[in-house]
Amino acid sequence: MSQWLVLAITMALACALVLFFTTLRHRRASDDEDTSETPDVIEYMTMMVGVVYAIVLGLAIAGVWEARGAAEDNVRREAQALYEVTQRADVYPAAVRDRIRGEVDAYVAHTVAVDWPRMTEDEPPSAEGGELLGKLRRDVTHQAPANELQAQAYQPLLDQIATADDARHARTQSDTTTLPGVVWFGLLTGALVTVGLIFTLQIRRSRRELLLAGLFSALIGFLLFLVWSFDAPFGRDGESAAPFTDLFPVAVAQAAAAP
User: What are all long-range contacts of 38-47, with beta carbons under 8 Å and residues at least 24 apart?
Assistant: First the structure.
């Protein structure tokens, strides 16, 4: 399901529920109900609950945003390190160079075609990716430099592979959701309490008050959707693999075309 569709459904449902319960409350209200004045304590409680919930919601958004940024940095670091390996391998003979680049392409194709769908579905990545990267490391390590130029490129190649391996481990360890279930329980409960306090203010069914109540509930729904969307460090649609697709378009295209 598209995230835009999820957002639209969330905001429309929040508005519909608030308008429905507001209308239902007024139909069941007694004829002698006094709606001209709201007790001061209710206004104070509404203000405090709104402030506290805004702080908690802001901290949740900041937390998932920071986790998403760290995950994207790891992906960029991994892709860039592998790209540097393919470029620095140019000093080796054609057979060695092509073998190194082929192993890099195989690792990238497996990462994008196999590991990424698993990570976006909260599943652990396969062990084959680590095996492919280990094979690349062994081949480069056992390739003795034949001249001065290869000797100068040998250690930087190993450093770039180590960087890619470190970034891969960081990526695989941050593929789960950021917020625990108890935090989500607090966010959803707080949203219900915050929106529910609208009814304690004795709002009428005037167009202005109904519009404000609907917009307020839609805003809460949008912010919760924002937290849900960012709570997946690598996204929910695979777009976080963009560094690999940008630097290795041929390998990614071949992986996508493979059955």
Answer: 38/200, 38/201, 38/202, 42/197, 42/200, 42/201, 43/201, 45/197, 46/197, 46/200, 46/201
